[in-house]
Amino acid sequence: QVQLVESGGDLVQPGGSLRLSCAASGFTFSTYAMSWHRQAPGKERELVAAISTTGETTNYSDFVEGRFTISRDNAKNTVFLQMNSLKPEDTAVYYCRAVRSTWTRKYDYWGQGTQVTVSS
Question: Which of 38, 62, 100, 114 places its Cα 20 to 30 Å from the Cα of 44?
């Protein structure tokens, strides 16, 4: 059974930091590209950051502005999102996603999300 379990969400003051984790099981983690997405109330879900299977390549949405870092530990089947200099507009539910494409099929899994609230 495929599972993606996010953790680390919390209430934090503006300017603070959080480290999100996403523990994967039920599939070969090292063969999947991983990404973090977020969804704020009343808004569409958006990509935050993505990382390749080996971790050599990362991509970030413009609003990250160098504040977040995505990483992965394939030995522990876990992907992380280090978030620094948090702003109130970063408040959202954060989801991790695992994607792998073959010639005939796309595998696409989502976690249940973890709440991040940035407020004084």
Answer: 100
